[in-house]
Amino acid sequence: MKTTLILGATPNPTRYAYLAAERLTARGHPIVPVGIKTGKVFGQEILNGKPDVPAIDTVTLYLSARHQPEYYDWLLRVAPRRIIFNPGTENPELSRLAREAGIEAVAGCTLVMLAGGNY
Prior knowledge:
It contains 4 helices and 7 strands; from the N terminus they run βαββββαβαβα. It is α/β, with parallel strands linked by helices and about 120 residues long.
């Protein structure tokens, strides 16, 4: 399985980022949770800032567009195969930057993609 970076990770079980971590883990997808919160999510420590990360296949975003600009350069350096813009995270500027860097920009929902078997 390919590793997914969850940007906007949280230990709060009422948040969609938490549910994504839960469902990705349940389906055997390794996760790297990154966010401003501290704690663990399904055995993985939430990393803060812009950490060095292993090879990442997918970034799934749970940050609104107004909080994304500080991560642009870092995300492009991480160089995932794709970035999933979950509902409420859509960002034409980051989508364009990603595409220009050869990264697929997907407007979708990680939870729906997992449920439908097309993650």
